[in-house]
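Structure (tokenized):
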């Protein structure tokens, strides 16, 4: 029991530390993170679990009755596709509902941080279910695949949340859907690996996908955070050189600075939202691109 609780706590500290570490210019308040972690995790994992169960019993029923040609691969593929769609959608909805109006959500990197926090909460609650069913060993096992998978996929639709808030006037539904579709697809493919490969190779593939996604997520958080309004430097994405905010090209490699969410005020060099008409710092008028 002690081993169980301490491993669980270590895992929670470790992953939250990874999620928060790279948003380095304006850290999120711990109480907002814990709120999103617990509430976001619960309101997404509970309905997702129930819907997965419901879909599975629906499949069982129809396939037994011969409505759909009953082959196991077909059944498993259908189920895994549903799981991907269901879980990604519920995590994204939970995140949007919780952070949309939150004061601390004030730069694009935060969209990723909170999306990953909800997804991590989801996986923590989901793990309890797995441990009950398959034993404690699965907990360690899932730290290398299911947990990074959830965190990494959240960074994909987190990009959509960042764009909805900072570029598209809060049009979450329309902006997030394309990113959500990509995450659903990866999630469904990931789940289906268990059908096609041997167990050992499956473990290898799943861990590789999970770790690749976490690496992608971390890089995205670093970039959004460096390009965000709370860093008063410009970071070159080609050669990593740090430049002063009055630079328009990198002093080392000559790359032009082109920020995804902000433009540089021509008068005072502040990073100003691309949808703002005037600079909030010096009130200079800005023209749309
Ligand atoms: Zn450079
Ligand atoms: Zn200005």
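Design, position by position:
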């Amino acid at each position: 029991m002690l081993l169980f609780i301490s491993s669980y706590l270590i895992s929670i500290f470790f992953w939250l530390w990874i999620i928060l570490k790279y948003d380095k210019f304006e850290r999120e308040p711990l109480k907002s993170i814990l709120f999103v972690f617990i509430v976001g995790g619960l309101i997404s994992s509970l309905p997702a679990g129930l819907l997965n169960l419901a879909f599975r019993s629906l499949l069982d029923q129809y396939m037994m009755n011969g409505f759909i040609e009953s082959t196991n691969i077909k059944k498993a593929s259908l189920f895994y596709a549903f799981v991907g769609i269901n879980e990604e959608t519920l995590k994204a909805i939970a995140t949007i509902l919780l952070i949309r109006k939150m004061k601390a959500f004030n730069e694009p990197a935060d969209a990723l941080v909170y999306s990953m926090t909800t997804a991590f909460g989801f996986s923590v609650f989901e793990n309890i279910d797995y441990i009950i069913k398959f034993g404690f060993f699965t907990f360690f096992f899932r730290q290398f695949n299911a947990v990074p998978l959830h965190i990494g996929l959240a960074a994909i639709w987190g990009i959509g949340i960042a764009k909805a808030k900072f570029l598209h006037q809060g049009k979450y539904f329309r902006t997030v859907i394309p990113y959500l579709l990509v995450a659903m697809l990866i999630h469904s493919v990931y789940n289906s690996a268990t059908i096609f490969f041997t167990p050992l190779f499956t473990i290898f593939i799943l861990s590789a996908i999970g770790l690749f996604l976490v690496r992608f997520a971390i890089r995205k958080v670093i970039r959004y955070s460096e390009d965000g309004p709370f860093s008063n430097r410009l970071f070159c994405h080609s050669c990593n050189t740090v430049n002063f905010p009055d630079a328009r090209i990198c002093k080392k490699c000559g790359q032009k600075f082109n920020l995804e969410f902000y433009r540089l005020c021509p008068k005072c060099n502040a990073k100003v939202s691309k949808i703002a008409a005037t600079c909030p710092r010096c009130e200079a008028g800005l023209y749309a691109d």
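Reviewer-requested clarification: The helical segments are 2-21, 30-64, 72-99, 108-134, 137-142, 146-166, 172-196, 199-227. Residues 63 and 70 are 5 Å apart (CA to CA).
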